[in-house]
Amino acid sequence: MDLILKLVRQILSETSNETSTPRKSARKGQPSGKRDAAVLLMQVCISLAPTRVDLILITQFDVRAHARKLMSRDKYTSTIYAAEHYDVENFTDGRHPGPSLNNFLPDISSPKSKWNQALAFVFAKDFVNSGKFSPQHVGVVERAFSVHLNQIIRMYKAQKRSDPAEVQAAKDHGRAAAREGRRRKVCIPLDIGPF
Hints:
With about 200 residues, the protein is an all-alpha fold. The protein is built from 7 helices and no strands. The protein has 2 domains: about 1-15 and about 35-55, no CATH class; about 60-165, no CATH class.
């Protein structure tokens, strides 16, 4: 472990001496150089230090790509669908089987809900079954997905705020309020006095 941290420090010191020009060959969302790899390696080392598990390197890029695949999203800006509120309640009460690969929808109400914990477990099992990591790393993959789940919830809320129907409703309400205000200003009774 000390040797790995020494290597990470060496890589970080080497990259800080280099000029920081972005590489044109790096794809969007992928680690772009030694520094990103070193930071990820250090994060994994720190999270695995107490468990003494074999060293693995899980990038958030892999987690995001696999989550998009399971959620049937083609690209980053695709629509995010959430689990129905009654399904989440029934799952909490034990009357619903919960999330599965066919029903891979997050609970938007809370990232720490029982539904989302089960969703993280389903994700980790499928991610490990893809052959990239051994089954002993399910817990680490679950934690990586839980971090990504916070981003999914933020994106869902931003998507809801930018829903065209809600935006149009807000505009209509603003126009109606403005029209009412103008009418009140125009129709003020004037006390001119006796004629």
